[in-house]
């Protein structure tokens, strides 16, 4: 997958996906060859247009795997990553379609119009995707409640595995010391002491008068799951 260079987040309200123009080579036989598996931390692209067999769109990170009451599984990530109906590509292969989003409104400078607007999205998996389970370092044991001082870690496509602590929890958002970059949006936040799922990466944040972003905001995954009518798939 080729990623273009993107500007740094400009403020605490700047999203991490909107500025990320990403192009992914999608094989002509993609409809016959969906991605084999979808796991937390995977690279995800919501397709805005196709140019030949190259998909252009916004690059994000899969947060968690959710499950409906009928047992079917879906991917959960940030709402600003894509609009309802957009095709979703994971690791360069067709994975499904975006079916629900809190659709936070953004300004022309990529900041949230309403700073505390919910930021969650759900994509339905192509029925041919063989496996959708927790994997790698993200194997949540439960849905947790974040508290100031909690030790936490996150996985992002751009930043990789990063750890820090919770600064505060307010209005559905978890403020952390974890640095994030463009492409990390939607990525999972877990508490390192018990692997409880806590949040979905939303945007970079600036604390204590810093000149540039020195932390991040994660949307409460419990609120996201409740809004979407999903249960968390634990691992």
From TrEMBL:
Gene3D superfamilies: Trypsin-like serine proteases. The keyword Methyltransferase does not apply. The keyword Nuclease does not apply. Residues 1-32 form the signal peptide. InterPro entries: Peptidase_S1_PA (IPR009003), Peptidase_S1_PA_chymotrypsin (IPR043504). It comes from the Bacteria. Keywords: Signal. This is S1 family peptidase.
């Amino acid at each position: 997958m080729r990623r273009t260079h993107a500007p740094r987040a400009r403020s605490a309200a700047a999203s991490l996906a909107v500025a990320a123009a990403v192009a992914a080579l999608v094989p002509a036989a993609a409809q016959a060859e969906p991605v084999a598996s979808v796991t937390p931390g995977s690279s995800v692209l919501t397709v805005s247009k196709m140019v030949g067999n190259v998909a252009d769109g916004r690059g994000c990170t899969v947060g968690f795997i959710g499950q409906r009451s009928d047992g079917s599984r879906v991917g959960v990530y940030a709402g600003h990553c894509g609009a309802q109906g957009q095709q979703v590509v994971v690791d360069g292969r067709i994975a499904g379609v975006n079916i629900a989003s809190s659709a936070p409104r953004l300004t022309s400078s990529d900041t949230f119009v309403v700073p505390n607007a919910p930021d969650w999205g759900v994509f339905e998996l192509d029925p041919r995707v063989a496996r959708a389970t927790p994997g790698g370092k993200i194997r949540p044991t439960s849905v947790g409640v974040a508290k100031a001082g909690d030790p936490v870690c996150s996985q992002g496509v751009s930043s990789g595995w990063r750890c820090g602590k919770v600064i505060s929890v307010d209005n559905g958002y978890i403020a952390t010391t974890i640095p994030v970059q463009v492409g990390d949006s939607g990525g999972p936040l877990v508490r390192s002491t018990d692997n409880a799922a806590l949040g979905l990466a939303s945007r970079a944040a600036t604390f204590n008068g810093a000149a540039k972003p020195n932390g991040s905001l994660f949307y409460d995954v419990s609120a996201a799951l409740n809004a979407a009518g999903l249960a968390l798939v634990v691992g």
